[in-house]
Design goal:
Elements (H helix, E strand, L loop, with lengths): L1 E4 L9 E7 L6 E2 L4 E7 L2 E6 L4 E6 L6 E3 L3 E6 L52 H10 L17 H11 L16 H19 L2 E9 L1 H11 L10 H15 L5 E4 L2 E4 L6 E2 L1 E2 L5 E2 L11 H15 L4 E2 H5 L4 E4 L18 E5 L3 E7 L2 E15 L5 H16 L8
Parallel strand pairs: 5-15, 12-16, 16-17
Antiparallel strand pairs: 1-8, 2-4, 2-7, 3-6, 4-5, 6-8, 9-19, 10-11, 13-14, 17-19, 18-19
Helix pairs in contact: 1-2, 5-8
Subunit structure: Forms a 24-polypeptide structural core with octahedral symmetry.
Keywords: Acyltransferase, Lipoyl, Pyruvate, Transferase
Cofactor: (R)-lipoate
Length: 406
């Protein structure tokens, strides 16, 4: 018997609200299965379970705010029986009515809440917490709204569009009129708390390097030349691949600083900084970036971007990243001096591609270049190791055939 507990989904997360259970008592669960939706300051997260078994009981209730580390559910291992179960194997025992699940010690009673909305089909309505809150502010019944999110879930944009259709003569109330404790404000507070902790606790050092990316861009253009637009790669795929391979060579930058020591990550899962349309930022992990083929990495990145903006990230994507990559080049920024996301120990920043004079074979030529930067934790590494990482990164982008060797 094991206890499934509320995971920590952010550097300063203290608790999360259980929005929805996706499992029921008696059901079989598999490792990696999404079993619940939890709302945090950075939105709704699909939470996975990492032990196979069957659900003995659900401890936390939907709508309940649960501290990190507290019990959400009790899981029975294969062949294990619930406590007190002693029915003979050859004689079925009538199932008695299930008593209310006991609450984990220290948890306060759940707040009173309305019955969850149910669609006309009888299924539970899939709606993001931000969309649910906005619908309540507008007095709009979300059960009649068509969802454009993953799995038909209703997003904040869907609610805003429905409000305008419902009252064409009057614009929907401005989101700015919402209380300062709304989802966007909570996200900004979470980001500020994490960055304040980072600057307070982590002794940053910074390195930067301007590199020529003509070879990488030429490789990319040749790769995309005969492919449909929908199947083409984008340059950030090459950047993420180069970061992943550089981390293989310098694993000291891939992990977390916890309890006074460096804890290396088990795989290469760089976090990708994603700006959200309504404001705010998340940095979910792109899993196994050192092992994905080009098209698979492009598909994984596209999927990650879409789900981040639909409030459908998974818990493993918010806990696995051992380093974060931020790319502000498409916004015109030439260089980035990033702040490390604790407990990670490094952050890589990329600026925009610019055409500059470059010396090649003794000749000055025009070449496309960009600035790459590294912010790293002096408790774990020094400048020499950081410089080695940037050298590896540069070599892979200047010799793109090394990115996916045949």
């Amino acid at each position: 018997m094991s206890e499934f507990r509320m995971p920590s989904l952010g550097a300063d997360m203290e608790s999360g609200t259980l929005v929805e259970w996706l499992i029921r008592p008696g059901e079989r669960v598999e490792r990696g299965q999404v079993v619940a939706v939890v709302e945090t300051q950075k939105g709704a997260i699909d939470v996975e379970i990492w032990e196979a078994g069957s659900v003995e009981r659900l401890v936390a209730e939907e709508g309940q705010k649960v501290p990190v580390g507290e019990v959400l559910a009790v899981i029975l291992a294969e062949g294990e029986k619930a406590e007190g179960e002693s029915a003979p194997a050859d004689r079925p025992t009538p199932e008695a009515p299930r008593a209310p699940s006991p609450r984990a010690p220290g948890l306060s009673p759940p707040p009173a809440r309305a019955t969850p909305e149910v669609a006309s089909s009888g299924a539970r309505l899939r709606i993001s917490p931000a969309a649910r809150k906005r619908a309540a502010e507008l007095g709009l019944d979300p059960t009649g709204v068509s969802g454009s999110g993953a799995g038909g879930s209703i997003t904040l944009d869907d609610i805003e569009r429905a409000a305008k259709v419902a009252e064409p003569g009057r614009a929907a109330p401005s989101p700015q009129a919402a209380p300062t404790t709304d989802a966007r404000g909570a996200m900004r507070q979470a980001i500020a708390a994490a960055m304040a902790r980072s600057k307070r606790e982590i002794p940053h050092y910074y390195l930067g390097h301007t590199l020529c990316v003509e070879p990488a861009l030429a490789w990319l253009e040749a790769h995309n030349a005969e492919r449909p637009v929908a199947e083409r790669l984008i340059f950030p795929v090459l950047q993420l691949r180069a970061v992943a391979l550089a981390l293989e060579a310098v694993p000291e930058l891939n992990g977390w600083y916890r309890d006074g020591a460096f804890q290396p990550a088990e795989g290469v899962h760089p976090g990708v900084a994603i700006a959200l349309r309504g404001g705010g930022l998340v940095a979910p992990a792109l899993h196994d970036a050192d092992r994905l083929a080009p098209d698979a990495m492009m598909a994984a990145l596209r999927d990650l971007l879409a789900r981040a903006r639909q409030d459908r990230l998974r818990s493993s994507e918010l806990t696995a990243a051992g380093l974060t990559v931020t790319n502000l080049g498409d916004l015109g920024v030439e260089s980035v001096q990033g702040v490390i996301y604790p407990p990670q120990v490094a952050l890589v920043g990329f600026g925009r591609i610019t055409e500059r004079p470059w010396v090649r074979n003794g000749q000055v030529v025009a070449a496309r270049c960009l600035h790459a930067s590294l912010a790293a934790d002096h408790r774990v590494t020094d400048g020499a190791l950081g410089a080695r990482f940037l050298r590896q990164l540069t070599d892979h982008l200047q010799e793109p055939e090394r990115l996916w060797p045949t």
